[in-house]
């Protein structure tokens, strides 16, 4: 689970 | 972006617009929980701190600005502009019983022990319970104006649609965020009682009257 996944959700 | 998330965001946008229109047109915040609106302002402030540091898209940035801006306008309407119509006697939920446990949980259960990530996690957990003061107020007053019911239906639908968005993203993009999903389930479950009343009553032209 890559933590730095871009937070692209609102 | 997928249809579930888009409709979910539009439902969220609609909820906020319904609330602002209700306040502005009726010049009143009767039946609206100021405490829930303060919690929403905290949710958006702690979640969108990356507004200036990470750019995702015009849509993403503009929606974040809109949500943060309208949440503060709503709090201003309740506690300043339309204060005389604010029903503080029925808005008595102890929000510290939400903020402290949620803050502690965000500190203990998160994806990464960094300030931004802990604040984001706090925001996700807080959002899942932020509507409780409002639902509590509706149960205390024993009823809700139909416009307030529409607001709550749109607001509750947005996170329910996000659950579908996460199912979609899991199967098609391999994206999965356990914290967001669990909090989203809790948030949506809290609306179930209201959803039932809304569909069985409001859509038949009756008013909602929760068991006081």
TrEMBL record, chain B:
Assigned protein family: Belongs to the ERD2 family.
Gene Ontology molecular function: ER retention sequence binding
Record's keyword annotation contains Glycosyltransferase: no
Listed transmembrane segments: 6-24, 36-59, 65-82, 94-113, 119-138, 174-199
Membrane topology of this protein: Multi-pass membrane protein
CC terms in the record's Gene Ontology section: endoplasmic reticulum membrane
Record's subcellular location: Endoplasmic reticulum membrane
Keywords: Endoplasmic reticulum, ER-Golgi transport, Membrane, Protein transport, Receptor, Transmembrane, Transmembrane helix, Transport
Protein name: ER lumen protein-retaining receptor
Top-level taxonomy: Eukaryota, Metazoa, Spiralia, Lophotrochozoa, Mollusca
InterPro entries: ER_ret_rcpt (IPR000133)
GO BP annotation list: protein retention in ER lumen; protein transport; vesicle-mediated transport
């Amino acid at each position: 689970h890559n933590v730095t996944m871009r937070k692209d959700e609102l | 972006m997928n249809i579930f998330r888009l409709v979910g965001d539009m439902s969220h946008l609609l909820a906020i617009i319904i609330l602002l229109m209700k306040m502005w047109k009726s010049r009143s915040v009767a039946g609206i929980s100021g405490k829930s609106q303060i919690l929403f302002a905290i949710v958006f402030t702690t979640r969108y701190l990356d507004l200036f540091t990470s750019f995702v898209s015009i849509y993403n940035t503009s929606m974040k600005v809109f949500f943060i801006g309208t949440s503060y306008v709503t709090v201003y309407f309740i506690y300043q502009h339309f204060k005389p119509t604010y029903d503080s006697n029925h808005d008595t939920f102890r929000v510290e019983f939400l903020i402290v446990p949620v803050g502690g949980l965000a500190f203990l259960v998160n994806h990464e022990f960094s300030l931004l990530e802990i604040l984001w996690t706090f925001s996700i957990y807080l959002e899942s319970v932020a509507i409780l003061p409002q639902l509590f107020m509706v149960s205390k007053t024993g009823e809700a104006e139909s416009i307030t019911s529409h607001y709550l239906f749109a607001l509750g639908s947005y996170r329910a649609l996000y659950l579908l968005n996460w199912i979609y993203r899991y199967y098609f993009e391999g994206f999965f965020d356990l914290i967001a999903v669990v909090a989203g389930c809790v948030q949506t479950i809290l609306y179930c009682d209201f959803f039932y009343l809304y569909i069985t009553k409001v859509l038949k032209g009756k008013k909602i009257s929760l068991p006081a």
